Write a sequence for this structure.
């Protein structure tokens, strides 16, 4: 069974600063996909970034980047130059390559302070 | 491009009543998902459709939940009868096809409160 753990229920960061959200997971699969989704207060979830496990290079999307440590089963999200619009719940998720089902963590509520 | 539409946005019912939610996916998206998101948890997949066929409903409580996507476009999710533990946000998502390389686009959700 796959499990995803986000150990930080709440975090805050000053505007323009950098923040890192943690995620660990457990799986016996050798290849899989990892995701970070953002859920703003309006509740529409948006894909932030996706990482395929067999790719060594960490994924980046503008101000968002990940630190993927496969051996440690760790997948953290770094947000640089934090903006007020980054305030949201962030979910880490796992998916098998042949699968359709996300295994989500419990989320981290991030507040960007002006 | 219009996003995934859901209605209603909010619903309050008494336990043992029935309720239905509607979802209109992004045009052209063959795959449609219904998720249940209980407060403080991540979304949990209830059912996945590929066009008008069910691909996965292994986590759908079939004694009270049903879903259909008759013409391969819109979908409805029904709960009959509702229980207190059904209070949650019900999210609909769609993607062009299925699989981890196809981005799932989520709707705004329907927040259900069962009293």
């Amino acid at each position: 069974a796959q499990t995803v753990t986000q150990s930080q229920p709440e975090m805050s960061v000053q505007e323009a600063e950098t923040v890192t959200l943690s995620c660990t997971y457990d799986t016996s699969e050798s290849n899989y996909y990892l995701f970070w989704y953002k859920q703003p207060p309006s509740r529409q979830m948006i894909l932030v970034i996706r990482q395929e496990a067999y790719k060594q290079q960490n994924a980046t999307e503008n101000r968002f980047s990940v630190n993927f440590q496969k051996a440690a089963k760790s997948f953290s999200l770094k947000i640089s130059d934090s903006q007020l619009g980054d305030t949201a719940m962030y979910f880490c998720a796992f998916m098998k390559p042949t699968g359709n089902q996300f295994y989500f963590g419990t989320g981290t509520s991030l507040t960007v302070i002006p | 491009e219009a996003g995934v539409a859901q209605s209603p946005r909010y619903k309050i019912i008494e336990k043992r009543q029935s309720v239905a939610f509607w979802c209109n996916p992004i045009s052209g998206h063959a795959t449609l998902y219904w998720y249940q998101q209980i407060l403080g948890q991540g979304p949990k997949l209830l059912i996945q459709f590929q066009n008008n066929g069910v691909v996965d409903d292994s986590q759908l409580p079939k004694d009270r939940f049903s879903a259909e996507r008759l013409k391969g476009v819109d979908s409805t999710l029904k709960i009959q009868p509702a229980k207190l533990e059904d209070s949650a946000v019900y999210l609909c998502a769609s993607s062009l096809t299925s699989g981890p390389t196809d981005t799932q686009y989520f709707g705004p959700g329907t927040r259900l409160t069962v009293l």
